[in-house]
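Researcher: Re-running this chain for the archive, since the previous output was lost when a drive failed. Same request as before.
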Amino acid sequence: MNDIKIYCNDYDFSRLSQAFYGEFKSDCPLSLEIIFTDEEGIRGLNSRTRGVDAVTDVLSFPSLDGILGRELKKEDYPADVDDEDNLFIGSIAICTKRAKEQAEEYGHSYMRELFYLAAHGICHLLGYDHMTDTDKAAMRGVEERALARINITRDSI
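Model: Regenerated structure tokens:
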């Protein structure tokens, strides 16, 4: 099963739910939440959770550890199954001001930047990271494939 349910009150990310098809294995649908915050909010989260007193664009808070490349089985994580029988993999916080600035800086739309940041966050929730060049290349590959599957490019939306 390759379904991801994205809970977000601010934007419709249903297209992104389909973008990660084939990027993970699970015997049940996965779920995650995306919240949006301002610079003060993201800085506070960054400081409290990572010890970095700085504004950033996106933060991910995975619920499950050591899952990269593993098949996710609901029975292995009973405490993380939500009310709709989805396996909750974590939360993503996106700073809207940084997203707008980066969209302008990179010359694409605000919505494209939001989709990219959400895809980046989902990769982290699935266990990807970018601490080494090898890890970064693998993560970028997943991000690019996911966004390409739903036709989101630097020139779109």
